[in-house]
């Protein structure tokens, strides 16, 4: 019986420029924390090895400090770590891997498989790695697995980074191809894959682990690693997903048409907490009163969430007569409000909406100031 922890696509050093600086920094740090949790799970479950199927680093140009921190994060598990380069960190003649070697950052229990050659690991299994030595290839780097020798009586484990053929639609030309059925053709007991950022089973012996810390707004079952148990040669592996990720990335696309839609969205935002990364794309229509409620709820949710991205370009403002009367928008100002309201259907809809909001805020502020003065 052998036990493995399969992970991939750590993307260490990724910069989340779409977020505010403090949120981007927290998401950057979360990737190191994910490695620490992987090490803790590996130690707790007493696995025989950790398999890391490529894209350990997000860029070749990450700093020396980032390289050192990544390998330091692995110290919680003293057993074998087996890593291959992926398309983001391919094993070029000069690469992040060669820099890590020069820095002396790689511990003795960490094996960076930079060449396609078999490794016998702790007398437990034969590892067949298919490292990427350039960012994109159009030949199958796992093809040599079938003819590769292995230690007699030991399970054969493949480790690769790329796209299993037949997953993507036929009109997409996918680089770094991996033949469907490779595990059976090469007599593998398990094929550990990276590149797909969500957990995905290809067949009984072939899995993508996905990234251990979610990094995009896509419902793809990410934020996990896979515990893999293999009873012996020929036995189908038993695979158990294990939650690793700290943050839950969500994408909401509500359509707002009536006030109760605003009520429902505000209620949902009240449930947002510190572990949430939210992208909110609203569409439809709302009046000024509804928009003000929505803005207040957004401000409150931003303070609770780890990160929140608001995209309201498709939300059309439809001020009601009550809205306009409440702003005391008479004469020319009232006509301007009405004109901006109508222009939201034109090519400059976004500009008209922003101008409408700005004018409404100015009028609202003036009204508030007048009321305060009257009260004094």
Identify the notable features of this structure and list them briefly:
single chain, 376 residues, alpha/beta, Purple Acid Phosphatase, chain A, domain 2, 6-stranded mixed sheet, disordered C terminus
Task: Give a description of the structure.
The chain has 376 residues and is α/β, with parallel strands linked by helices. The chain has two domains: 2-243, Purple Acid Phosphatase, chain A, domain 2; 248-375, no CATH class. The protein has helices spanning 21-45, 64-73, 96-103, 182-185, 259-269, 288-304, 321-326, 331-343, 349-375, and strands spanning 2-7, 49-53, 81-84, 110-112, 119-121, 125-130, 156-161, 163-164, 177-178, 190-194, 200-203, 206-208, 224-230, 238-243, 248-252, 255-256, 276-286, 307-317. Strand 13 and strand 14 form a beta hairpin. Helix 8 (331-343) packs antiparallel against helix 9 (349-375). It is elongated and about 85 Å long. Mean pLDDT is 89; it is low at 367-376.
Can you give me a brief rundown of this structure?
With about 375 residues, this protein is α/β, with parallel strands linked by helices. It has helices at about 20-45, 65-75, 95-105, 180-185, 260-270, 290-305, 320-325, 330-345, 350-375; strands spanning about 1-5, 50-55, 80-85, 110, 120, 125-130, 155-160, 165, 175-180, 190-195, 200-205, 205-210, 225-230, 240-245, 250, 255, 275-285, 305-315. The protein folds into two domains: about 1-245, Metallo-dependent phosphatases (Purple Acid Phosphatase, chain A, domain 2, 4-Layer Sandwich); about 250-375, no CATH class.
